[in-house]
Write a structure and sequence with these properties.
The protein has 386 residues and is an all-alpha fold. Helices cover 67% and strands 1% of the residues. The protein has helices at 2-12, 18-44, 57-64, 83-104, 111-131, 138-141, 150-168, 188-207, 215-244, 249-263, 272-295, 304-322, 328-355, 363-368, 370-375, and strands at residues 175-176, 179-180.
Length: 386
């Protein structure tokens, strides 16, 4: 999935910033896994706690000081997997929440500011919110359902992205004289490859969230995941044709991702037909969300807010409508609680960075490209002789 994110972001942004994009997408899982090991895992799965905040000293001790005592038997958590499987799987979820922000704020954020945000967001904000459901906290007790993270992963990342683009401001030349200018990406084929990589990765994201190899549940989840993606592509295609008066391939690609995000909350308790419908509505919503953000002059380079936040919220609420045994009120409560916490957390981190080290690169760097100025190499080196 991280390779998919890297390809999508590099494809949808300008060639002069390709190395910078790839650098961030490489460091995000690296830093995400390390910081999740340092503090995030123990915050997210604190064991018995007050439902809002806790810390599991035992799991921290197992990771860093006494790994030989970790439970590696099939009886761990009554799930047929080990302590180490649990940690690694959850660490990748944590890193995904951070990399969602990367694409939205691309091409003008300071590398140091982004990496610092990633460290704090993955280490503290994401795991605390995640503990409220997956760690057995108060949302879990209320009956909130989020199977694989439409809210806990995707909308938490989406709220961070929204706050980031608001405080950061748009790219130079994006909005001039009340008009929105198209800033062409470097490679549509690369973005397409990225979407298919993400679609494949989603089978692990959702299918793995069954936390067992039960063939009945896993196969259902893979089908609902696929139907959501198909519905999203169709919804994005026809909506963009109606709203933009053109066959917009970018909206088809984002429609696929929107559908995948939409079905992630309830992939194990919805029917394939419901998944197709949820994905289709997500494909519609992602188009109008992109249009709305441009009207508000909120510059999201890759549509991350529209895909992950808008469709993450929709998918979570839709689970309360179509999901067997799910409550719409509990779903709404979960969306609001997680949204408020993620927004406040992201704002505090980004604002402190803005008033201290600064968020944005110099205009000179932005105009000439971050690759040559910051990294000393370019992503594409094909030269045409005149």
């Amino acid at each position: 999935m991280h390779l998919g994110f890297a390809c999508v972001e590099a494809g949808f942004t300008q060639a002069k910033n390709t190395v910078n994009i790839l650098f961030k997408n490489t460091l995000t899982p690296v830093l995400g896994i390390v910081t999740y090991a340092m503090i995030g895992f123990a915050l997210m799965y604190p064991g018995l706690f007050n439902g809002f905040l806790g810390f599991n000293k035992e799991s921290w001790h197992l990771i860093w000081l006494n790994s030989g005592a970790a439970d590696t038997s099939a009886g761990y958590a009554d799930g047929g997997y080990t302590f180490w499987t649990d940690f690694l799987y959850q660490a990748m979820f944590a890193a995904t929440a951070a990399t969602i922000v990367s694409g939205a704020v691309a091409e003008r954020i300071k590398l140091s500011a982004y990496l610092t945000f990633t460290l704090v967001y993955v280490a503290i904000v994401y795991p605390i919110i995640g503990s409220w459901k997956w760690g057995g906290g108060f949302l879990d007790e209320l009956g909130f359902v989020d199977f694989a993270g439409s809210t806990i992963v995707h909308s938490v990342g989406g709220w961070g992205a929204l706050v980031g683009i608001w405080l950061l401001g748009p790219r130079i030349g994006k909005y001039n004289n009340g008009k929105t200018s198209e800033i062409a990406g470097s490679s549509v084929p690369l973005a397409t490859i990225g979407v298919f990589l993400l679609w494949l990765g989603w089978f692990g994201f959702n299918g793995g969230s069954v936390l067992s190899a039960d063939p009945g549940t896993v196969s259902l989840v893979l089908v609902t995941t696929t139907m959501g993606a198909c519905g999203g592509a169709i919804g994005g295609h026809f909506t963009s044709m109606a709203a933009m008066k053109r066959i917009d391939f970018g909206m088809v690609l984002n429609g696929v991702l929107a559908g995948l995000v939409g079905v992630t909350a309830g992939a194990d308790i919805i029917t394939p037909l419901a998944a197709f419908f949820i994905g289709g509505v997500a494909g519609i919503l992602v188009v109008f969300s992109v249009i709305l953000l441009d009207k508000l002059k909120l510059d999201d380079c890759v549509g991350a807010v529209s895909v992950h936040l808008t469709c993450g919220v929709w998918g979570t609420l839709a689970t309360g409508i179509f999901g067997e045994g799910a409550s719409f009120i509990a779903q709404l409560y979960g969306v609001l609680a997680c949204g408020a916490a993620a927004t406040i957390g992201a704002f505090v981190i980004f604002y402190i960075l803005k008033v201290t080290v600064g968020l944005r690169v110099d205009p000179h760097l932005e105009k000439h490209g971050l690759d040559s100025e910051e990294h000393g190499i370019r992503g594409y080196t094909i030269l045409l002789e005149k």
